[in-house]
Amino acid sequence: MTYSITGFAKRVMRQAFVGLGVAIAPLSAVTGLAWAGDGSNWTGEIFVYAAASTTNALTEIIAAFNGLGEVKATPSFASSSTLAKQIKRGAPAGIFLSANEKWMDYLEDSDLIAEGSRVDLLGNRLALVSPKDASFSLTEISSETDLAGALGEGRLSLGDPEHVPAGIYAKEALTKLGLWESVADKLAPASDVRAALAFVERNEAPLGIVYSTDAAISDGVVVTALFPESSHKPITYPVAVIAPHDNDAVRAFLEYLKGPEAKAIFEKYGFQVNG
Length: 275
Fold this sequence. Notes:
This protein is an alpha/beta fold and 275 residues long. The chain has 12 helices and 11 strands. The chain folds into 2 domains: 155 residues, 3-Layer(aba) Sandwich (D-Maltodextrin-Binding Protein, domain 2), CATH 3.40.190; 106 residues, D-Maltodextrin-Binding Protein, domain 2 (3-Layer(aba) Sandwich). It is elongated.
C-alpha cells in the first residue's frame, strides 16, 4: 500500500534538516519508516505525553512546532509511570517521551509502540539539591557521605521509588553507595520529580534528589552535589510513536523532536541530546 505525505509533514522535515545541510528527500526515505495509517485517523491535533522533567523544554519546543501551522501539538506532563498506564488504558497519546526505559518497555511489551519509531532521545544527571538559602557542608555524594546526619529531623524528597523514574534512579544510586538503609525511613516520596523539587523549593524538605535539569530551572534550590554516574543506570529518555495513533503528523513531530531546533532547546535546559 502507498501512503501519501502531506505538505505540512514535508515542511516540518525541511525545518529539521535544512539547518543540518541535508538534502531534502521524501519523508519515508529520510526516516526509513512506513506509515501505519493512510490519514484516515488524521485529527489535526497531536497529543504528546511526556515525563514531568521535560516540561519546560518540551513546552518551548511544542510552541515552536505549533508555529509552523496547520497541526497543533498538545502536551500532557506527569510521571512516566502515570502516563504509561494511561496510554495502556487507551489515552489518545500520539507520542510518548519517558524518563526511563522501564515504562517504554511496559508499552512495547503491550504492542503499543509503533514499529521502528523508538529511539533514545535524551540523557540527564541525578542531583542532590537543597533550598537556596540553606547551608550544607556536603559537596559530593559517596559511600562516606553522612546523608542521614545531614537530614537531621528532616526528610529526603524524591520521586516515589516504587514507580517514578527519578525515584527509581535515586534508590538505585543510594543502594549502590550503601546509603539507602540509613535514609529509607526519612523519605518524602512525591508523585513525580517536579513535585519532589517543589518540596525542597518550599523548604518542606532540607534535601531532595531530582534531575540536574530540574535544579537548573529552579530559583529556589541549589545543587549540593551530583551523583556519580557509576552509581546508577544511565538516565535515558526514550521516545516513540504510540501505534493506535500513528499518522504522518505524529511522525513529523517525532522527526522535529530529533531535529536541530529541538536539540538546541533541549541543550539549553541542560539535557544531553543523543545523536
